[in-house]
Amino acid sequence: MKEEYLRTMELLKTVPSLRWIDRDKGQIDMYENPPVDFPCALITTEITSSREITPGVQQCYGKVVIRLAHAFIDETSSVTPDEVQQISLEYYDISQEVYLAIQGKAGARGGNYSRTSWRQESTRGDNLAVVKFEFQLNYIDRSAMQ
Q1: Please, what sign has the CA dihedral across residues 2, 3, 4, 7?
Q2: In the chain, how many domains are there?
């Protein structure tokens, strides 16, 4: 999964709005002042299941999770001045940039990234807007062949 992490990071580096890209180590959940620059993208890679094709060859069903965190001014009501509202909702624009950087691109071990979900994490008390992308990434793993 190291290769998929590095490939995902490579693709995210093409998003000029991102100021920090890293493996998700709980940085935005465990610290009062997270050790990241915002907006940031935090990556987790997983194999959710696999099946044996032949000895040493597996079909892997993978998932790449990207948590996009944006420090924001929570001014989004209909009475908010447009320029302030646009700043508060900028994370939607950055989300689209992330989507376009990843969707349909080839993974490190084959297969293409395919978005399966995008959702905003529940309301937080720390003035962060956090959205969570999940991308499916299926590939053939031949690494156990001798």
Answers
A1: positive
A2: 1
